[in-house]
Amino acid sequence: MTLNTITPAVLAYTAPDSPLEEFVPDGDRAQFADPKKAQLLAAASGIEDLTPYIGTELKGLQISNLTDVQKDELALLVAEVYHMHDLNHSFEINPPSYTLLRMIKTPPSGGDTIFTSQTALFDKLSLPFQKALEGLHGIHSAERSYLSSINGGGKPHRAPIATAHPLIRTHPITALKVLNYNPSFIDRVQELNGQESNHILAFLREHLLQADDLSVRWKWTPGSIAFWDNRSVVHKAMPGGYDVTLREGTRTAIHGERPFWDPERSESLTERKERLEKELGAVENGVHISSEPELNN
What we know:
Strand content: 15-25%
Radius of gyration: 20 Å
Number of helices: 8
Mean pLDDT: 84
Low-confidence stretches: 82-87, 293-297
Strand order of the largest sheet: 11-3-13
Helix content: 25-40%
Structural class: alpha+beta
Shape: globular
C-alpha cells in the first residue's frame, strides 16, 4: 500500500486539534546582539568554519551555561552563517525559525545530516532566472505527510493545510534573498500553470540535489548539538546502512514570522558583496557613503 493515498483509515480519522492561526512572534533576539559576537566567541575553545558557505563549529561550549548576551550572539551567528532535504514544516503559516537538535545516541557510522544554504542556492542562479522567480509563491502542503502518518498508524494532531509562501523570501535579520524551496512539502507554484510549475519545481529539486559545494555534512556524536536557521537552511538525514534504533535525538524548534518578500530591502550575496566593495572603495577615495548597519543586513 502506498502510504500517501486516501484509505478507509484516513476517511475514518478526525484530527483532534484546531488549525493554528497566524501570529506575530516576539522580536528576534539576533537583533539585540553585538555584531562582533565577542562574548560568545571568547567562550569557545575553538572555532572552525566547515565550508565557505555554511557551517561553523564552536568547540568547548556548554549551551546551558551561556549568558543571555551570548545566546543573543548565538542567534545572530546562526542567522548570518549562510547555511534534507527538509525545511521543517514549511507548510505552517508561521514556519520554524531557529531549530536546535541534540543527539542523545548515535550509531558508530552513518546517520549524518547534510545542511544546505538556500541563500547560496539562490545566489548561484543566473540573474534573469533570479528575477523570474522573485514575486512567485510556492504552495506548501501537509497532505502527503498527513496521509502517510495515518496509514502508518500515527495520529496527527491537526488536519492538513496548504499555505502559499514566497518562493524567494527576505531574511528578517540579514535582509538577504533566500530560496524558499522544500521538495518534501511544496506542491506547485501558485502563479504558473501546471506544466510550467512542474518544470520549475523539477529544476529547483535538481539544483538542490547538486549543491555539494553549498552544503556541509555533519557527523554526530552523542551529546553534540546543531543549531540552524530554518529560514535559510534545508537539511537531510542520510538514510541507510545503519541501525536506526541507535540514532536518537531531541529537537526544539521556535515558530518564526510568516515568510515575506521585500524587493526594496533585499539583496543577494553577490549584490551585497558588490555593494560593500563599492562602499569600501569610495571610503578609501575619501568619499563617505552612508548605508544601513550590517548587523541587520
